[in-house]
Structures are given as structure tokens and as C-alpha cells.
Please model this.
Amino acid sequence: MPYSKDGKRDYKTEYQKYHSKEEAKSDRAARNKGRRILESAGLVHKGDNKDVDHKEPLSKGGSDERSNLRVKSRHGNRSFARTSRGRMK
Model:
């Protein structure tokens, strides 16, 4: 994790190392585009507890077409499938 020894996060360094890279910017823009598509369709609203999920992830070649987007709960979209021992599958 990007935390220093005193437990506080150094946002400036984190931005310089990751968030300011072109790949990170284009990924963020693609996620925002997908959300705008479903917001315009009235399926999600700003501030609600729902996330836009890409059926085929952008990182695996998915697109922002409406057919690849779905609405999921925030918890369901951000959690990972786990084994009976609590490890990620």
C-alpha cells in the first residue's frame, strides 16, 4: 500500500507514480464514459450506492458499448470471489 511509516498516505507521490500516467488517465476516462452512458439512460444517479460494471473488463479488451455495461451494487462490483478459506479465487 502507498502508506508511509507513520500510516499517512502521500497523495502527491502516489499521483506522480501512478495517477498521472497516460494509461491511468485513459482508463479513468473510459470508466467515467461508461458511467455517463448509464446515467443518461437513467439507470444510475450520482451519489447512489451503485456502480457501473463492465461485463468484459476494460483491462481485458472490453469496450464502453451499452451492451458491455451493467449496474451492480457498489459492494458486489468492488469485492472479489473468495474460497471457503477466505482467499481470492
Observations:
- The chain has three helices and two strands.
- Residues 39 and 46 are 8 Å apart (CA to CA).
- The radius of gyration is 16 Å.
